[in-house]
Amino acid sequence: MRRMTRKVIIDCDPGIDDAVALCLALFDPQLEVVAITATEGNVSADQSTRNVQALVEQFDPPRYPRIGTASPLESAPALNTRQFHGDDGLGNAGLQCSRLHHQHPSDKLICDEVRAAPEQVTILCFGPLTNLARAFRRDPAIVALVGRVVIMGGSVQAGGNITAAAEFNMYFDPLSARQVIRSGVTKTLLPLDLIQQMGVNLSFLEELPSEHSRAGRVLRRILPFMFRAYHQQLGQESIVLHDVLAYLAVVHPELFQNVEMCVDIETRGELTTGATVFDRRPRAPNRPNSEVGIEIDAAAALDCLIRGLQRAGQCTS
Ligand code: BDR
Ligand code: CA
Q1: Does the Cβ of 18 fall within 6 Å of ligand 1?
Q2: Ligand 1, closest atom to CA 161?
């Protein structure tokens, strides 16, 4: 009997953790990755598009997703993400890719894929929410046609990671984040609080698929950079792979505890731009607008991560 798969679009800004999460999704039999849309964030728009293309070519999955090209955000903040992801976003691995022949803007591709399968597509957001906000402006009716949006971003009680108050994906494009959060789309938010429970230590490198597989070769070229960066910049021996959360929440929802909350994004604070604000008053005036992950079974999640990558290795040997 043919197993039911879930159609997903992955919107991402690769990014080392984005690359790991992409690898998991591309070889998961429960998912059909219909499109991968690049967005500016960890790297420039052009680099992000090149990285998506390079990762798909290097992983060479059984079914190729359509690829969406990123375009720059006018109000993008100048941030240095090189220290954690490398100059090229992928640990300076120098992955090559061919030229894209059919260029589809990411936001248009999101609209097309959602229209093609109404209420069936889950959108995984591994980066700033620029593309999704643009897609909702381009075709407002798709808000009601998206199955669910699963967003890695924000922070409930963990503070920020790019500023004292804000998580990177929300900070990079707070206006788009606010637009998506306030839209009526069904959504799950996976904040920093969760990933801090899920550190990955050096022994993880030994668990990666072997060099003899395409997945293993890519992962072994990009991940050591992140371990070195965390050690040098933060004095930490373990890393966190934020975007893996969004993949896990779709494929292994049983690992998470969620609560419904009313969330908004600060867009103008002098110190707090990009901060996620949760209304926890007993009689809050607005109804909850998001499901928010508050707990994860970290040991089981790490196990799923390793097993998922091993499967990617077997599929690409
Ligand atoms: C997010 O920021 C990026 O650097 C990561 O790829 C992740 O999407 C975590 O705050
Ligand atoms: Ca990311």
Answers
A1: yes
A2: 10
